[in-house]
Amino acid sequence: MNQIILWGILVIPWFLLLLLDKQRVKRFFTVGLFAALMMTIAYQVAEKMHWWTVQENVFFLTSMGATIYCLHIVITIFVFYLTYPGFILYIIVNIILDLIHGYVIVPFLAKIGLYNLYDISHFGLFLVMTTVAIILYLFQRLLDFIFEESLA
Fold first, then answer.
1. Number of domains the chain contains
2. pLDDT at position 152, please?
């Protein structure tokens, strides 16, 4: 059953992007990929600091959660699609999603044996995710500045 959940997490969210305007998805795809990079770094730090571990995964991933390569990218694109450029709305939506992630999704994944927190609290995880969200927003602003300058 866990493998079905993991493969669903890895594949299904991509289809949600088909519901969105193609040009706007392209605009935010780079920040989505940057989110995957940021979460890959976070997972590496977590492994070294013993913050959390991935207990079960799809066969080609080791210590990286399947969520990095799909769910984080798609959710990042969705959040930017719905909230950008308004920082206040963006951060409110991210705080809500990060709280749900830290206090609902992670305990569920731990309960079914996919993921465990060790030397980081749920609130610490929330802070990590919120920090990544702020970095992502700044990255998107930088991209916008670069593209505006190149068009001028």
1. 1
2. 59
